[in-house]
Every structure is written in C-alpha cells, then in structure tokens.
Amino acid sequence: MNDEIEGASGRDTHLGPGIVLVDKPVGITSAGVVEVLRRVTGIRRTGHGGTLDPFATGLLPVLVGREFTREADALLAGDKEYLLTVRFGSETDTCDLTGAVVARGPSPLPDEAVIRTALADFVGDIQQEAPAYSALKHHGRPLYWYARRGEPVVKPARTVSIRSADLVEWLPPDAVLRVSCGKGAYMRSLARDLGRVLGCCGHLVALRRTAIGPYRVEDATPLWRLERRATAPVLPATRLDLPKACGPRSGESPAPE
Known about the structure:
single chain; alpha+beta; 2 domains; 10-stranded mixed sheet; 7 helices; globular; disordered N terminus; disordered C terminus
C-alpha cells in the first residue's frame, strides 16, 4: 500500500516522486521547506517551484524526483495569484515589513476610490524595478548579497504582466489586495510603486500565494503535517504521474536540467 497523507481538500497526496503542494507557514525559507520534503521522502533530487520569502505564506509546489525537477518550468507554467497587505504611510529598504524605513508619506492617506483608480493603472504590461533585496542575479550573485554589504544594485526595469489587481479590503493604513500576475512580477515592488503613485509611500506587510496555474492553496498540505512524518517509501516516477493540465505544451521542449 502506498504511504499517503490527506491534504487540506480531503484528497490523498502521495509522498513519492511527483509534485507536493505545500502550504508554507511564516518564518521558514522555501529552501527549508525543500529540506523537510527531502527528509520525508528520502529523495535528494527535490526542489521548489517559485520562491516565497520567509515572511510569506501559501502555495509552494515542491517537485520531488528527477523526472519532475527537470520539467519544473513546464509543470508550473501559468499565472500566479496573491493576497497581499500593503501598509501605506512609509517605505522600507526591503519593500516589506522586515526592512528599515527609508521614507514617510504625508497624511491623510488616500481614500478607497483613489486606491482603486491607482490600482487600475497597474493592470497590463508594466515596467517594474526589482527590489534591492531580491534573488535576482547580478554578475552571478543575488541582489540581496550586494544590499547586505551596503552596495545595493539597481537593475534596469523590466516588463511584467499584471492580469488583475483588486482592492479586497481597506482598513487604514492597510489595504488588502488580490493580484493575478505573470512570471517575474514582484509583489514587494508593486506595494512600493503603488505607495509612490499615491504619494503616501507603502510597503508589504503580509503576502499569501493562493495559486500557480491550476494549483490552488486549498489543495495544499500544511507543512506541520509533513514535519510530523518519519520517512515515506519511494514511489516510481512515471509520465503517468504528470498532471494533464500541466504537462509540456505541444511543440515545447522540457526545461533544461
């Protein structure tokens, strides 16, 4: 009998080679989640699909086994969806709650109608500058490496796609937004830029990823459930295990290893 664990949706989730949907909690890195899965499955060839910062929560797909890690880009293609909380009134050097305040905006804060209007201007293909504290590479090193040394690097703005951006709740000074976006968009940059456009400054204080392509956080397993397990038997990886909705598109080559 296969060793299985019941996911949040009530369905069984295999812990052999495949894609394990994890609901990441606050306080652990994405690499730390991968280490938990390596210990649970006993499979060293394991990696995550899409980094979440330690303060962020939500959907983190973990690819277990060579068959899946080598096709990560094809398997995890699709838009991402987030719930984020932006605090207006100040901007930080990291663009989130972990950084030092570098600017403060005037009061009073904008009203709900003004925020909705400003958000609409961010929908579509926009130019976005990555945060100084990010994993984006510069000469082979992540930007945060330079920033921590007091040598922040400003990379040229690049085009990212914001499919939708909606105001869910406005409880001053915090605005809860639901954002759907394409690959490469930074929610911390969005929070910073929205604050600048509104003239009041802003930074991210909470972030939860709710979807990647067809995968939803409702179907993910909380990390604590996985941490309580010992080891699970290794299941053979086969092409039949690949979700049909996320297999390589016609004419598309697998992602390089």
